[in-house]
Each structure stands twice: as C-alpha cells, then as structure tokens.
C-alpha cells in the first residue's frame, strides 16, 4: 500500500522547538555528574561521542539507566538532538532521573501494604 505524500507535512527541522528545547535543557540539568576515577576507568576509558580519553578527576555525565559515561559537552550536544544513550540507545527520560525503582517514599498518599 502506498500512501500519498502530503505537501503540508513539516520535517522536524521546520517545526518550532521552543518547548522541546526547554525539556532538553531540563533533562541536561538533571543528569548525574561524576568524577572520573580508576574504578570508572575499568568500565569505560573513552567517550564514544568524541573518542577522547577520560582524565582522572574529570567531570563526566553518567546516564541514568545504562550508567554509560560521557564528556559533559559531548553528551549535551548529543542530547540536543536525541533522547537516548549514544552507545546503547537506552532511553533517557526526565522521570528516570528523578525517582529510583521501588522508592515508595515519593508518594506519601499511596496506600501502604504490609508484608504477609
């Protein structure tokens, strides 16, 4: 089945992105910043965005779900046009950076269950 192409369709570069820009700025402000150390060096030693090596005590951004790390400028540039990890494509959402799984203290009005 072939669908007709609409002449009124806008590409993403033509759509105003004021709201999206605010969300992306908010997301970048909520990402976890870590200092690079020898322990992190056993996991990652290169930024996969720029392929540059990390230096000891350098501030890096750690992604909330997958825990991959990147240079601050590199990941901010990436997140300007994407909402995923550049390495594994894991979703990066604002809600995933605010709460932790299983944390019931964030919702005091929710019913408490007692263990059986």
UniProtKB/TrEMBL annotation:
Domain of life of the organism encoding this protein: Eukaryota
Keywords noted in UniProt: Metal-binding, Transferase, Ubl conjugation pathway, Zinc, Zinc-finger
GO biological process: protein ubiquitination
GO MF entry, a single one: zinc ion binding
Domain RING-type: 47-89
Pathway noted in the entry: Protein modification; protein ubiquitination
SUPFAM superfamilies: RING/U-box
Enzymatic reactions: S-ubiquitinyl-[E2 ubiquitin-conjugating enzyme]-L-cysteine + [acceptor protein]-L-lysine = [E2 ubiquitin-conjugating enzyme]-L-cysteine + N(6)-ubiquitinyl-[acceptor protein]-L-lysine
EC number(s) on file: 2.3.2.27
SMART domains, A to Z: RING
Entry-linked Pfam families: zf-RING_2
Keyword Ligase listed: no
Region (Disordered): 96-116
Record protein name field: RING-type E3 ubiquitin transferase
Species of provenance: Arabidopsis arenosa
